[in-house]
Amino acid sequence: MSPLGNYGVGYFCRSFSNHLNVRAMNDTFNQDLIAVQDELFRYAYKLTMDREEANDLLQETSLKALDNRDKYTPDTNFRGWMYTIMRNIFINNYRKT
Predict the structure, then answer these.
(1) In sequence order, which residues have a C-beta less than 8 Å from that of residue 62 and are 6 or more positions away?
(2) Residue 66: what pLDDT?
(3) Most buried in the list 46, 57, 70, 92, measured by CB within 10 Å?
């Protein structure tokens, strides 16, 4: 049996290529997330009218986006996706109070 088992060299090349594509996509996602932070903070402040609550909302939104990055479709409206997440978190938090 081959030292690669049932997998050929092509399998490992494709796997490595996919890994590089995912890494590049993650780098782009992270860069987009960082780039939109100031704008999201302003939106959070408009929603909450409180600096501390705006910071909390921004943090919760960023964490939710990071947890769900696999659901984001690359080359679509990242800002719109982030605004939707923030608005939904704000509404859900409002319902709890």
Answers:
(1) 33, 37, 40
(2) 95
(3) 57
